[in-house]
Design a protein that fits this description.
Blueprint: H1 2-15, E1 18-26, E2 37-41, E3 46-50, E4 56-62, E5 65-72, E6 79-80, E7 85-87, E8 92-93, E9 98-100, E10 108-116, E11 127-132, E12 135-140, E13 146-151, E14 154-161, E15 168-169, E16 174-176, E17 181-182, E18 187-189, H2 193-197
Length: 198
């Protein structure tokens, strides 16, 4: 008897449940985002669903009430629907849509030292430049010959120059990873012919 009452209660609750549906797209391109997670919460109930290949989601079996709804997706900043979403019995609230902005990749950095090729003494004021597909950077060495520059993730070609020295290019591309410092990208500059003549 108790089991029958429980089943009838669940059936009755389902009969009066409502839902929420909408689409999640890329704010920059307007393209649908598949696999985004949409969560709806009220003081008495909660539900969630993932978007399909068209960016469409549907959260069903929600009790009538007012819900806060938000969407998240990998590589995108999360967003909340700007106002509470009403859910009514036996109705699906439509057009609860989201436009998610892509996250900017976290910057990384390159650091190293510039020294005299023979004496290994530090060269202060040397200029180190970096050029890559995702941007460029520039840094000046301190009195100990050290430099550090922030860059977007990617691969960069580096070169160093200083007054009285022959410029030098780093022999291979230097990778920059999000939130990390690529260390020991060092240069040993040789005095220029003009400097040696003086």
């Amino acid at each position: 008897m108790k089991r029958l009452l429980l089943v009838l209660t669940l059936v009755a609750a389902a009969a009066f449940a409502g839902g929420i549906t909408g689409q999640v797209v890329d704010a920059g391109t307007g393209r649908p985002i598949a696999g985004a997670l949409v969560v709806a919460k009220s003081p008495d109930d909660a539900g969630q669903a993932r978007t399909n290949e068209r960016g469409i989601y549907r959260i069903a079996d929600l009790e009538p009430g007012s819900y806060d709804v938000g969407a998240t997706a990998r590589g995108f900043a999360g967003a909340r629907f700007p106002r509470p979403v009403p859910v009514r019995a036996n109705q699906i609230t439509e057009d609860v849509d989201f436009r998610l902005a892509r996250k900017r990749p976290e910057a990384g950095a390159i650091s190293g030292r510039v020294v005299h090729a023979r004496s290994r003494e530090p060269i202060a004021g040397a200029v180190v430049v970096a050029k890559g597909e995702n941007g460029a950077g520039r840094a000046v060495t301190d009195r100990r010959g050290f430099y550090k520059m922030k860059l977007r993730p990617g691969a960069y070609r580096l070169a160093a120059k200083a007054r009285g020295y022959t410029p030098e290019s780093y022999p291979e591309p230097v990778p920059v990873r999000p939130g990390r410092v690529t260390k020991d990208v060092n240069f040993a500059l040789r005095p220029s012919k003009a400097a040696l003549a003086d």
